[in-house]
Design brief:
Order of helices and strands of chain A: EEEHEEHEHHHHEHEHEEHHEE
Distance between the termini of chain A: 41 Å
Radius of gyration of chain B: 20 Å
CATH superfamily of the largest domain in chain A: P-loop containing nucleotide triphosphate hydrolases
Helix content of chain A: 25-40%
Number of helices of chain B: 15
CATH topology of the largest domain in chain A: Rossmann fold
Largest sheet of chain A: 6 strands, mixed
Largest interface: A-B, 34 and 32 residues
CATH architecture of the largest domain in chain A: 3-Layer(aba) Sandwich
Number of strands of chain A: 12
Order of helices and strands of chain B: HHHHHEEHHHHHHHHHH
Largest sheet of chain B: 2 strands, antiparallel
CATH class of the largest domain in chain A: Alpha Beta
Helix content of chain B: over 70%
Strand content of chain B: under 5%
CATH topology of chain B: ABC transporter involved in vitamin B12 uptake, BtuC
Radius of gyration of chain A: 18 Å
Oligomer: heterodimer
CATH architecture of chain B: Orthogonal Bundle
CATH superfamily of chain B: ABC transporter involved in vitamin B12 uptake, BtuC
Chain lengths: 249, 319
């Protein structure tokens, strides 16, 4: 396993959570606003401290992990990034290499890794553009590329599809599912259909606690969705036999 | 990057060589080096130390501007945003009112007191928020400004003139021993700050961005504030507050070289030095024999230049 949490709590947004996360797979964190999804993700990323209880990464208590060593293994993609200065998209992605570069200048390998990451997220053409002049969706792809350039073992994403159009939302989740074959990917999402379609496991959160945890088809059912979101969901099957849901009232 | 730094270095070398030769009185360089009076005294005891002070001061103010803008993610931040120079001004003004001649020493004490207060207020355990730092610094600025106004209001006519003159900011010839201790502190601090340029890049994007890439943001922010405050406090103690250098030099260089601090910081040091030396040369030659305070000139010249930059390069500056 990669993460092991035992009675994990935070001053706000998370109470007494215990769970294990594997080394591979796409896990989505779902739940209503204020349920504690982003708080949990931030704690996993080492950005929310101090936490109560225990949280181990690779067998080591997170609060004792050296910051730089942890950063070379775990990448975090925030909901949005706002930059005040004229960094190019290429420079932003290269910053992702910092935990691995160590020195003042990037190597040829660093630049290649950054270019590959930008190709994967379909933003290589934006490389020389001012990051501030990009659209929300373009920025999100650049920020994701920066995380991939980090070559992490764990990728944590906070609502990564928020600013993306439909095509790029699907492309993103296909990519996350593919990455999940070789690494652990944890993504906060409000789109339950994307979670249902692509994730290996869903953790449903409510009021700072984990209300459901398991394979998508089990966790995302009409009863749990009505209980957690207060919304009636009707499940249907596509012609290909894949479940999807529509919401009523 | 190397080309940008090399060109900047060339410019500062030219300015450093030419500036001491320019002045209202013509001097013969051969006479100056031969020890012939008054050329020797004018060159070695009036102009050269003043140019060296301008070079060190301009470099320090410029890199501090880059540093504080990066730490606060605020393009309008400058060396005087976080209160230390106001503390230095209070120290100097108090010394003038009390009749002490050591205004430089008093302003250092004032800067140190504000530095200690701001750090104490902003550090919370192992955390240091740039937002708290900004609020504390701006508050200290307001308090210091109120104290200066109070002292000014009760000062005598002569003291009031001295206070106004000090607050305008200006360069004077200082002893070489003073320049030496200034250089011994300022040069290593600027070097250490510049060596951390990759980390400043990350912090310029955001604290979470930097933390998730292995940077201890609290330690880096605390270091940046102390380093910037030491640079600003020392320069202000010797020159008074000189505005705009830490604002327009970084912005102009960002337009030319981009935001990467690995280029921006060394170029800011070099061209900030050149900028203040040129402004000071103009201030002592424009209206001879009047010596215009260089702080007035940087604001009068820098302000319109900055407005022109905003107008012509608005997109590049603010996207």
């Amino acid at each position: 396993m990669s993460f092991l949490a035992s009675h994990l709590s935070f001053s706000y947004g998370l109470r007494d959570a215990s769970f294990e996360l594997p080394q591979k797979g796409l896990i989505t964190l779902a739940g209503p606003n204020g349920a504690g999804k982003s708080t949990l993700l931030g704690i996993l990323a080492g950005l929310r401290a101090p936490y109560k209880g225990s949280l181990k990464y690779a067998g080591r208590e997170l609060r004792n992990c050296p910051r730089a060593e942890f950063a070379s293994n775990v990448a975090y993609v925030p909901q949005s990034v706002r930059i005040e200065f004229p960094f190019t998209a290429g420079e932003v992605v290269l910053m992702g290499r910092t935990p691995r570069t160590g020195g003042w200048f990037e190597s040829e390998h660093d630049r290649t890794a950054a270019d590959q990451a930008m190709s994967i997220t379909d933003c290589l053409a934006l490389k020389e553009r001012d990051f501030r002049a990009l659209s929300g969706g373009e920025r999100q792809r650049v920020v994701l590329a920066a995380a991939l350039a980090q070559e992490p073992k764990v990728l944590l994403l906070d609502e990564p599809a928020t600013h993306l159009d439909l095509k790029h939302q699907l492309a993103l989740y296909r990519l996350l599912a593919r990455l999940g074959k070789t690494m652990l990917v944890v993504a906060v999402t409000h789109d339950l259909n994307l979670a249902l379609q692509f994730s290996d496991r869903v953790m449903m959160m409510e009021d700072g606690q984990i209300a459901g945890d398991g394979v998508p088809a089990e966790v995302l059912n009409p009863t749990s969705i009505e209980a957690v979101f207060g919304v009636r969901a009707v499940f249907q099957l596509t012609p290909q036999g894949r479940a999807w849901m529509v919401y009523e009232g | 990057m190397k080309g940008s730094v090399a060109i900047s270095a060339l410019i500062v070398i030219v300015v450093a060589v030419v500036a001491p030769l320019v002045g209202s009185t013509h001097i013969d360089l051969a006479n100056a080096f031969a020890g012939v009076s008054p050329d020797h005294e004018i060159f070695f005891y009036a102009r050269l130390p003043r140019v060296l002070l301008a070079l060190l001061g301009g470099a320090a103010l410029s890199i501090t501007g880059v540093l504080f803008q990066c730490m606060l993610r605020d393009p309008l931040a400058e060396p005087y945003t976080l209160g230390v120079s106001s503390g230095a001004s209070v120290g100097a003004v108090l010394a003038i009112c009390l009749g002490f001649s050591a205004t430089g020493f008093a302003s250092l004490i004032g800067a140190a007191v504000v530095l200690a207060i701001v750090v104490t207020m902003s550090v919370d355990g192992r955390r240091m928020s740039s937002f708290t730092l900004l609020l504390t610094g701006v508050t200290m600025n307001s308090i210091a400004f109120a104290i200066i106004l109070f002292l000014h209001s009760i000062a005598s006519f002569a003291q009031s003139f001295a206070i106004s003159r000090w607050l305008m900011g200006g360069l004077d010839a200082v002893p070489y021993s003073t320049l030496a201790w200034l250089a011994v502190i300022v040069l290593p601090v600027m070097a250490i700050v510049t060596l951390r340029a990759p980390q400043w890049n990350l912090l310029a994007v955001g604290e979470e961005w930097a933390a998730s890439r292995g940077v201890s943001t609290a330690a880096l922010t605390t270091f940046g504030y102390i380093a910037g405050s030491v640079l600003t406090g020392l320069v202000t103690a010797l020159t008074g507050p000189i505005g705009f250098v830490g604002l327009i030099v970084p912005h102009a260089l960002r337009l030319k070289f981009g935001a990467d601090h690995r280029t921006l910081m060394p170029c800011s040091i070099l061209l900030g030095a050149a900028f203040l030396a040129v402004c000071d040369t103009l201030s002592r030659t424009m209206l001879p024999p009047t010596d215009i305070p260089v702080g007035v000139l940087t604001a009068m010249g820098g302000g319109p230049f900055f407005l022109w930059l905003l107008r012509s390069k608005r997109r590049s500056l603010w996207a």
